[in-house]
């Protein structure tokens, strides 16, 4: 992975199953100076209006999604509460690429993310808390 698909500074969000991209979009509306590259399924974005500071890719090859993750500052994983936990493969991918992660504070991610060390939790469904965690990690990349 020598050439980035996306140039410049950004964080990413990846995946389509069990995601709450509505809360990410609400947070990003309040952070117009920060770029997000979002790799998702069209179904996970249905009915959402994407602000200008989010670039969306859908149905791209895994190698391209990994390229986006590799060159990102960190990853955000906004999850929905679900009967079947989701997001684990995305968390493992962020670990593989040594990226910090901002993730919904749900009990099924506790075995993967060490809050304050490998990532930070945000209060589930709280766009203001997510906004604060994104801004903090963006401004202080070495804080995790």
Could you please describe the fold and organization of this structure?
The protein has 144 residues and is an alpha/beta fold. It has four helices and six strands; from the N terminus they run βαββαβαββα. The protein has helices at 21-29, 62-70, 88-96, 127-139, and strands spanning 11-14, 36-40, 54-58, 75-77, 101-104, 119-122. The strands form two sheets. It has a three-stranded parallel beta sheet, covered by helices on one side. It has a three-stranded parallel beta sheet with strand order 4-5-6, sandwiched between helices. Helix 1 (21-29) packs across helix 4 (127-139).
Characteristics of this structure?
144 residues, alpha/beta, three-stranded parallel beta sheet, 6 strands
SSE diagram, text form:
Elements: E1 11-14, H1 21-29, E2 36-40, E3 54-58, H2 62-70, E4 75-77, H3 88-96, E5 101-104, E6 119-122, H4 127-139
Parallel strand pairs: 1-2, 2-3, 4-5, 5-6
Helix pairs in contact: 1-4
List how many beta strands DSSP finds. Answer: 6
The main pleated sheet reads as:
3 strands, parallel
The whole-number mean of residue pLDDT values reads 91
Distance between the termini: 24 Å
> What Rg is obtained from the alpha carbons, in whole angstroms?
14 Å
Total number of helices: 4
The main sheet orders its strands as 1-2-3
- What is the 3D form? globular
Short précis:
This protein has 144 residues and is of the alpha/beta class. The protein is built from four helices and six strands, in the order βαββαβαββα. It has a three-stranded parallel sheet with strand order 1-2-3, with helices on one face. A three-stranded parallel sheet has the order 4-5-6, with helices on both faces.
């Amino acid at each position: 992975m020598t050439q980035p698909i996306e140039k410049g500074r950004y964080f990413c969000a990846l995946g389509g199953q069990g995601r709450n991209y509505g809360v990410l979009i609400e947070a990003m509306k309040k952070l117009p100076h920060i770029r997000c590259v979002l790799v998702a399924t069209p179904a996970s974005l249905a009915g959402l209006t994407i602000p200008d500071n989010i670039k969306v890719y859908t149905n791209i090859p895994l190698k391209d999604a990994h390229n986006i993750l590799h060159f990102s500052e960190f990853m955000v994983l906004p999850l929905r509460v679900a009967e079947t936990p989701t997001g684990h493969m995305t968390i493992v991918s962020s670990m593989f690429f040594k990226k910090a992660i901002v993730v919904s504070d749900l009990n099924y991610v506790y075995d993967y993310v060490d809050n304050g060390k490998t990532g930070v939790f945000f209060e589930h469904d709280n766009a203001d808390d997510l906004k604060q965690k994104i801004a903090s990690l963006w401004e202080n990349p070495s804080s995790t």
